Structure formats: structure tokens, C-alpha cells
């Protein structure tokens, strides 16, 4: 009896531990550097997540549910009482505010042949690798406004909002949920800033500008002072020379009559 | 007497040499400023839209000052050889006027270079690039100029945004009004394009996968030519003015020493 409870405890512990890795994860940041953006979140596809629940000769699909992490979320259940997955759309849940909405469904990714991230560098293989490895929530900006759109609509998310995501494994023939992941950790979309808030003031003056201005101002001042000095010295010299010429002519006038007197 | 005559001869020789250098520098200044005004990198629309295009005004002044320096240097050589006081006085006064204009050009270029900060271009890019509705013709002309210049910049220099593509994600913009974030996290020219001009892998570009988008900013491609322009006008002009200062001092001394 005791050993039975111990085994059960271990079993539950093991299940819990396994569950920690059974959450949708953000795509690897080295690969998808622009994630999350304002209105999209790129999640890793559930590679090997539901392998234990897959049975041979049956077809399965993965459903992705998204919801806002708000206090007044009415219900975070993704299935009804008979384990059928809910088909709530983005509009019906007001963008995930009232509960989870179905954002996408796709085939179960192959665990036997996982995509190799190293192939991303190859231009021919990158499209396949990205398609197999990740899924972009909020990718389709037009399906909300297209009245002819009948598939699952994956409209852009709201900025600066926290979302949570969940993968559900569904048996395609019976339409019943077979397994589900936990809700992901809260993922927040980016917040936007206004360009009006950008400060365009230049700050301090650069050293070069101060050097140029100060030295040139000094040089101009020296030039003007020198010009003034040259002009005034020229004026003074011309006055001096004018005064000297007058003196010389006076001396000549005074000395001229004497030779006449001596000759007489 | 003989010594002062020798001294005068040496001074004359030095002044002629000084004027020859001024003439050559004047031609070089004109050529350099014509090169800058011709805007080889096509960045003028960005400056015009920010209202900070005074470094181009400084270059325009430089063109005319360079030519004036060349003409005045010839006048100076003739005046010094003829030892004519009148000609020398005319030379000195005209040189002082040219000196003042060149000083204005240098200080303008140096001062206005300080205004060209990354934030200035960032704000203008966000507000003008692909602006959907413009108020009047002038606004339309400016935003078209900004859009074309940025497209060319991003294409030729393989860059995105001012400091990086995150500029488009961190701030709202005129571009964001008409291009939703899911399809256009940043403009298409930020993607690595093939020879036909379409992105090599559009999903890779939107996700920011390294190698499929341009991850570096364009500020270096803008500030490099702007710096060359501003410092070329300011510092070369400053060097010419320092030399001209010495020649003018010598000329004024010479003028005060010779007779009519």
C-alpha cells in the first residue's frame, strides 16, 4: 500500500517535471531577433511535445490558442465538456480578452526529422526551416476585413499587452482533444514610443568649433589693430615729414639774403 | 641703408611667396567647396528637411571667397613688386573683407556640424519617411526627398534605420500608419535584396533572421560625408586664414615702411 502511494507520488512528480517543458516557447532569439514585435509573436512549433500521445495509423492536428492575460478572463478552457476543442475566433473573444481564441491549426511537426537550424544560412532551405520550426501569431493583417475569408484568422495582436498561448493535440477524425500543453509563460508585445519625445538638442559645443571661433576672433582683432597702427603711423610720419619740409624751407629762406650782404 | 634695402627685398620676396600660396589655396578652396555643394552622396534632402542645411551655405561662401582670394593674391603680387602704396592699401582693405567672409564660413560650418546628431535624423526619418498626407507642396517635396534619400541610403549602404532596424519597432512613425507591423516590421529596403530588388526571404527579413535583413544603422553612412564636408570647409578655411593673417601683417608692415 505504502509503495503504491510512493509510486503514484513519483509518477505525479515525473509528470509535473515533464509538464514544465510542455509549454509553448518563444522562437530562439538567435534566430528570430525581431521577436516579439508590436503585433506579432513567433513561437516554436511543438516539436516532440506530444509524441507520447500519438498513436500509429491516426491523423492528428495541432491547434494553437491565444488569450490575453487579464484579470477578468472568464474562462481559460479550450475544450467543452465532451473534450471537443472550442472554435472561438478572434472577433468572438474580443481579441483574446474574454477567453482563448483559435489562432491556427497545422500538422504535427515530425519528431523524427526535426528542422536543422544551421540550414538557415542556406537561401534555398531557409523557407522550409522557418516553416517547420516556428509559427508567427498575428501574421495576417487582412483576414479580419476580408468577408470571403473562411480559414482560421490569425490577426495582429495588440501592442504592449501580455498574451499566453497553448497547443492542443486533436484527433482529426474524431475531433477530440488528445493532449494539450500548459499555458505558456506570459509574453508581452512591444510598447511604442512617440517620435515627438525624441530630444534633438545638440548638447555641448564641440572642441573644434570653440577653437576655430576663438582663434579667428583673436586674429581678426589683431589685424584690425595692426591696420589702425599702420594707418596712424603713416599719418604721423606724413605730418612729421610735412613739418620737417616747412622747417627746411624756412631755414633756406633765412640763410639766402646773407651772401648778398657779404659781397657788398 | 643697404641693410634696410636688403631687408625690404627679403620682405618683398616673402610677401610675393605668401601671396602665391594664398592664390593656390584660394583655387583649392573653390574646388573643394564646389565638390561639397554638388552633394555627391545625395544627402542634401535630409538636411533641407530638418532645416539644418547651413553647412551648404558655408560651402557656397567658400566658393566665392576662394575665387576672391585668388584674384586678390594676384593684385597683392603686383602691388608688392611695384611697391605702390595705393595698390597695397586697396589690397589690404579688400583682403580684410574677404577675411571676414571666410571667417563667417568657417564658424558656420563648425557650429552647424554640431547640430547633426543621430536623434535629429531619427526624428525626421520617423516623421517624414513615406508620410501619407502632406500639408502643402513644400511639405510634400520635403517628405518625397526624405523618402527617396532613405531608400537609396538603405539600398546602397545595406543598412536600416538610423541606429538599427529597432528604430522602426521602438517608435511609431508615418511609415507605420500605412504599413502594418505584421507585414512591414521595417521597410522592404531593410531586407537583403536579390538582383531583381525583391527580398531574398521575406519571412526571414520580417523575423529578423541574421543574414536576411540589414542589422546595422545608417548613421555612419550619413555622418561620414557630413563630417568630411563640415570639417573640410571649416579647418581648411581656418588654415588659409592663419596663413593670410601672417601675410597681411607683413603687408601692413611693408606698406608702412615704403614711401610714395
Number of strands of chain A: 7
Class of secondary structure makeup of chain A: alpha+beta
Shape of chain B: elongated
CATH class of one domain in chain A: Mainly Beta
Q: How many separate domains make up the residues of chain B?
A: 2
Main sheet: strands, sense, barrel of chain B: none
CATH architecture of one domain in chain A: Sandwich
Helix content of chain B: over 70%
Protein name (chain A): UPK3A protein
Keywords (chain A): Membrane, Signal, Transmembrane, Transmembrane helix
Organism (chain A): Centropus unirufus
InterPro entries (chain A): Uroplakin-3
Characterise this structure.
The complex is a heterodimer of chains A (264) and B (260). Chain A has 264 residues and is α+β, with helices and mostly antiparallel strands. Helices cover 31% and strands 16% of the residues of chain A. Chain A has helices spanning 2-20, 126-133, 207-255, 258-263; strands at 41-44, 60-68, 101-107, 134-137, 162-171, 176-180, 187-188. In chain A, strands 2, 3, 5, 6 and 7 form a five-stranded antiparallel sheet that branches. In chain A, strand 5 and strand 6 form a beta hairpin. Chain A is rod-shaped. Chain B is mostly helical. Chain B folds into two domains: 1-116 and 226-257; 118-217, Orthogonal Bundle (Cd81 Antigen, Extracellular Domain, Chain: A). Chain B contains ten helices and no strands. The radius of gyration of chain B is 26 Å and the shape is elongated. At the A-B interface, helix 2 and helix 3 of A face helix 4, helix 5, helix 9 and helix 10 of B.
Layout of secondary structure:
The complex is a heterodimer of chains A (264) and B (260).
Chain A (H helix, E strand, L loop, with lengths): L1 H19 L20 E4 L15 E9 L32 E7 L18 H8 E4 L24 E10 L4 E5 L6 E2 L18 H49 L2 H6 L1
Antiparallel strand pairs in A: 1-4, 2-3, 2-5, 5-6, 5-7
Chain B lengths: L1 H36 L6 H7 L3 H29 L2 H29 L4 H11 L8 H21 L8 H5 L3 H5 L23 H6 L11 H39 L3
Protein name (chain B): Tetraspanin
Main location (chain B): membrane
Subunit structure (chain B): Heterodimer with uroplakin-3A (UPK3A) or uroplakin-3B (UPK3B).
Amino acid at each position: 500500500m505504502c509503495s503504491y502511494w510512493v509510486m503514484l507520488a513519483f509518477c505525479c512528480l515525473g509528470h509535473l517535471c515533464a509538464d514544465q517543458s510542455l509549454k509553448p516557447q518563444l522562437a530562439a532569439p538567435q534566430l528570430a531577433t525581431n521577436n516579439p514585435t508590436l503585433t506579432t509573436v513567433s513561437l516554436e512549433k511543438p516539436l516532440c511535445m506530444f509524441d507520447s500521445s500519438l498513436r500509429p495509423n491516426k491523423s492528428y492536428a495541432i491547434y494553437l490558442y491565444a488569450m490575453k492575460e487579464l484579470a477578468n478572463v472568464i474562462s481559460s478552457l479550450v475544450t467543452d465538456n465532451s473534450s471537443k476543442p472550442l472554435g472561438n475566433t478572434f472577433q468572438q473573444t474580443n481579441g483574446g480578452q474574454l477567453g482563448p481564441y483559435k489562432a491556427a491549426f497545422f500538422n504535427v511537426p515530425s519528431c523524427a526529422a526535426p528542422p536543422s537550424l544551421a540550414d538557415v544560412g542556406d537561401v534555398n532551405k531557409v523557407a522550409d526551416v522557418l516553416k517547420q520550426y516556428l509559427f508567427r501569431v498575428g501574421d495576417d493583417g487582412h483576414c479580419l476585413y476580408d468577408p470571403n475569408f473562411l480559414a482560421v484568422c490569425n490577426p495582429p495582436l495588440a501592442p504592449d499587452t501580455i498574451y499566453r498561448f497553448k497547443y492542443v493535440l486533436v484527433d482529426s477524425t474524431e475531433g477530440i482533444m488528445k493532449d494539450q500543453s500548459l499555458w505558456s509563460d506570459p509574453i508581452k508585445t512591444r510598447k511604442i514610443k512617440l517620435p515627438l519625445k525624441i530630444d534633438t538638442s545638440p548638447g555641448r559645443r564641440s572642441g573644434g568649433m570653440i577653437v576655430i571661433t576663438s582663434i579667428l576672433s583673436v586674429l581678426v582683432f589683431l589685424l584690425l589693430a595692426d591696420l589702425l597702427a599702420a594707418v596712424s603711423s603713416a599719418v604721423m610720419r606724413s605730418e612729421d615729414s610735412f613739418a620737417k619740409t616747412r622747417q627746411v624751407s624756412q631755414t633756406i629762406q633765412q640763410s639766402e639774403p646773407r651772401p648778398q650782404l657779404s659781397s657788398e | 641703408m643697404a641693410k634696410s634695402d636688403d631687408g625690404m627685398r627679403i620682405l618683398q620676396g616673402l610677401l610675393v611667396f605668401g601671396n602665391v600660396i594664398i592664390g593656390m589655396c584660394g583655387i583649392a578652396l573653390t574646388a573643394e567647396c564646389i565638390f561639397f555643394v554638388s552633394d555627391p552622396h545625395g544627402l542634401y534632402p535630409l538636411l533641407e528637411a530638418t532645416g539644418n542645411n547651413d553647412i551648404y551655405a558655408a560651402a557656397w561662401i567658400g566658393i566665392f571667397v576662394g575665387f576672391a582670394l585668388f584674384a586678390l593674391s594676384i593684385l597683392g603680387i603686383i602691388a608688392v613688386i611695384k611697391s605702390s602704396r595705393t595698390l597695397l592699401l586697396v589690397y589690404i582693405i579688400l583682403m580684410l573683407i574677404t577675411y571676414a567672409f571666410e571667417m563667417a564660413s568657417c564658424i558656420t560650418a563648425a557650429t552647424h556640424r554640431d547640430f547633426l546628431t543621430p536623434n535629429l535624423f531619427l526624428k525626421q526619418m520617423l516623421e517624414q519617411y513615406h508620410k501619407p498626407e502632406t500639408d502643402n507642396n513644400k511639405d510634400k517635396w520635403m517628405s518625397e526627398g526624405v523618402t527617396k534619400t532613405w531608400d537609396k541610403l538603405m539600398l546602397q549602404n545595406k543598412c536600416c534605420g538610423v541606429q538599427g532596424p529597432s528604430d522602426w519597432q521602438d517608435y511609431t512613425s508615418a511609415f507605420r500608419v500605412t504599413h502594418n507591423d505584421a507585414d512591414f516590421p521595417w521597410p522592404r529596403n531593410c531586407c537583403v535584396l536579390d538582383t531583381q530588388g525583391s527580398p531574398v526571404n521575406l519571412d526571414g527579413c520580417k523575423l529578423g533572421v541574421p543574414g536576411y535583413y540589414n542589422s546595422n544603422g545608417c548613421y555612419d553612412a550619413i555622418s561620414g560625408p557630413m563630417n568630411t564636408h563640415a570639417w573640410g570647409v571649416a579647418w581648411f578655411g581656418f588654415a588659409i586664414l592663419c596663413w593670410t593673417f601672417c601675410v597681411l601683417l607683413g603687408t601692413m608692415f611693408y606698406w608702412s615702411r615704403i614711401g610714395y
